[in-house]
């Protein structure tokens, strides 16, 4: 009897340890990690302030035995045996403003834009994109796809998008090799569906139009499919807690939850579109946990939700970015995906277009968001004109690339290269792995691609030149991080 109990307890403890091992480690075995660095080379790509380096190959290194680092020897520790979320992709928004600016540029500059953004070898290899359903602030005017009071949506027509946006998206898909993961977001239902009878200034969707609005998403997906553009997913509403002077519509967490479970989810299923990914929230990090918990704690709503989207504009009070809120959401809902759906430096000012801080804003956010469990990261407009538009609301912003519609010239901000340090080297299907820095000035994240290559991103926020070692299982390579720089270390 006692022998049986001892054996049973031992088996239970063994099983629990095995469970913990599977829960917290999904990568290679420790023995494989010990041998990982042997014979590998490291190609270093660098972008740095006060240099000509822009995603430039700056060194080729190899590993040697190193063992225990001292406290005086800065290191970035990488552990390929510990893996986490699967990477979806990185990209930007293909808005009316981007498409209109693109159309006004010379043909050779159009080809350059497509190559630089979407070609995986000659450019930075975007694989993810977002677009707007109906008009948004980055449209030259407000417009709708249906006539007033057409609840049946019989007048639904995307003719407006056929002038600039649809041709632009189709060319982007072709430049990306024929496949681009595209999700779409509405800024507002038609004015007559809302309680303020206004496509602008917030307001709420009237209950009598819940079903018509759910049908609207289906109409959009079908219309874009017919135009040759597949839609991978949808967010419910861009910034549902913001009453803006441009297109906007407000939902409480409970209202969004109920719209998903009672209308949009079932409507997509009935239309044979159950494979379309539904993204909830699509607003800032500040309220992400409250919104996620309200929706995901309701199983009837949660079954339709692929992920929670978020933006970075939450620090308007001066309190700084709230990266931990993303981590808390990932911890509480590990089976729901997290995706960054929008961010850009606001308030365009041409005198600041060369400021180095813009790239660092992106690098800091991307590293923290990926380390907190984010699977995909989507910038805002991929291209804007010389004024930071067009924008019918006067809400002009920066983009990684600005096209001067008067001269035809392109201007690349350093943010383009900072984003490229991730998008060019981390491929869809990659797994995030451990990358840990021993110095606060060096931020880092790392992914192992499906081909086995490891991309380690290291960003130096300081004014210092910092020598450090890339350390994997007792082997290391010496590298120097330049002041205000970002580097991708490709281990192959």
Keywords:
TIM Barrel; 8-stranded parallel barrel; alpha/beta; disordered N terminus; single chain; 12 helices; 492 residues; 10-stranded mixed β-sheet; Immunoglobulin-like
What does this structure look like?
The chain is 29% helix and 26% strand. By secondary structure, it is of the alpha/beta class. It has two domains: 26-86 and 432-491, Immunoglobulin-like; 89-425, Alpha-Beta Barrel (TIM Barrel), CATH 3.20.20.80. The strands form three sheets. The protein has a ten-stranded mixed sheet. Strand 19 and strand 20 (475-481) form a beta hairpin. Residues 1-25 have low confidence and may be disordered.
Name of the CATH homologous superfamily of the largest domain: Glycosidases
Helix percent band: 25-40%
The total count of strands amounts to 21
Supply the helix-strand structural class.
alpha/beta
C-alpha Rg (nearest Å): 24 Å
Number of continuous helical runs: 12
Which CATH architecture of the largest domain?
Alpha-Beta Barrel
The level 1 CATH classification of the largest domain is: Alpha Beta
The CATH topology of the largest domain comes to: TIM Barrel
> Mean pLDDT, nearest integer?
93
Q: Whole-Å distance between the termini? A: 56 Å
Instruction: Give the overall shape.
Output: globular
Main sheet properties: 10 strands, mixed
Q: Quickly count the domains.
A: 2
Strand order of the largest sheet: 2-1-21-18-17-16-4-19-20-3
Short structural description:
The chain is an alpha/beta fold.
Q: Strands, helices and their partners?
A:
Layout lengths: L1 H23 L5 H7 L4 E8 L7 E7 L1 E2 L9 E12 L2 E5 L2 H8 L3 H12 L9 E6 L31 H11 L5 E6 L23 H17 L6 E3 L17 H18 L6 E8 L3 H9 L2 H4 L2 E7 L11 H10 L4 E6 L14 H15 L4 E6 L2 E2 L15 E3 L6 E3 L1 H10 L7 E7 L4 E7 L5 E7 L5 E7 L2 E7 L3 E7 L1
Parallel strand pairs: 4-19, 5-6, 5-12, 6-7, 7-8, 8-9, 9-10, 10-11, 11-12, 13-14
Antiparallel strand pairs: 1-2, 1-21, 3-20, 4-16, 14-15, 16-17, 17-18, 18-21, 19-20
Helix pairs in contact: 3-5, 6-7, 7-8, 8-10, 11-12
């Amino acid at each position: 009897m006692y022998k049986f109990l001892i054996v049973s307890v031992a088996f239970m403890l063994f099983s629990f340890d095995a469970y913990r091992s599977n829960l917290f480690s999904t990568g290679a075995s420790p023995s494989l990690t010990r041998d990982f660095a042997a014979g590998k080379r490291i190609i270093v790509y660098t972008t740095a302030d006060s240099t000509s380096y822009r995603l430039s190959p700056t060194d080729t290194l190899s590993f040697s035995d190193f063992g225990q680092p001292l406290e005086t020897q800065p290191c970035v520790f990488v552990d390929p045996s510990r893996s986490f979320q699967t990477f979806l992709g990185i990209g930007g928004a293909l808005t009316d403003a981007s498409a209109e600016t693109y159309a006004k540029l010379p043909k050779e500059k159009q080809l350059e834009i497509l190559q630089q953004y979407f070609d995986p070898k000659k450019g930075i290899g975007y694989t993810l994109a977002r677009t707007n359903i109906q008009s948004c602030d980055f449209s030259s005017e407000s417009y709708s796809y249906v006539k007033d009071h057409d609840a049946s949506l019989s007048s639904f027509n995307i003719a407006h998008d056929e002038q600039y946006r649809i041709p632009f998206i189709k060319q982007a898909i072709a430049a990306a090799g024929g496949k681009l993961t595209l999700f779409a977001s509405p800024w507002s239902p038609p004015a007559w569906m809302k309680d303020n009878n206004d496509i602008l200034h917030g307001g709420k969707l009237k209950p009598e139009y819940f079903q018509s609005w759910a049908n609207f998403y289906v109409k959009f997906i079908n219309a874009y499919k017919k135009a040759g553009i597949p839609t991978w997913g949808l967010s419910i509403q861009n910034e549902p807690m913001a009453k803006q002077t441009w297109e906007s519509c407000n939902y409480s967490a409970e209202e969004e939850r109920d719209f998903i479970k009672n209308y949009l989810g079932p409507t997509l299923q009935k239309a044979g579109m159950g494979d379309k990914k539904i993204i909830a929230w699509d607003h800032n990090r500040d309220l992400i946990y409250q919104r996620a918990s309200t929706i995901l704690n309701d199983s009837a709503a949660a079954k339709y939700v692929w992920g929670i989207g978020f933006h970075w504009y939450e620090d308007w009070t001066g309190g700084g970015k709230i990266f931990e809120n993303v981590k808390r959401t990932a911890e509480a809902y590990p089976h729901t995906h997290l995706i960054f759906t929008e961010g850009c430096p606001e308030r365009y000012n041409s005198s600041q277009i060369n400021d180095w801080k813009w790239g660092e804003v992106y690098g800091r956010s991307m590293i923290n968001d990926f380390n907190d469990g984010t699977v995909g990261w989507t910038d805002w407009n991929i291209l804007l004109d010389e004024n930071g538009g067009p924008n019918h609301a006067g809400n002009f912003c920066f983009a990684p690339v600005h096209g001067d519609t008067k001269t035809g010239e392109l201007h690349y901000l350093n943010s383009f290269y900072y984003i490229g340090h991730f998008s060019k080297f981390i491929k869809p299907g990659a797994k995030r792995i451990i990358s840990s820095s021993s110095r606060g000035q060096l931020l880092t994240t790392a992914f192992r691609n499906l081909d086995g290559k490891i991309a380690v991103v290291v960003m130096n926020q300081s004014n210092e030149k910092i020598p450090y070692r890339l350390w994997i299982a007792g082997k290391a390579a010496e590298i120097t991080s330049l002041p205000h720089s970002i580097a991708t270390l490709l281990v192959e």
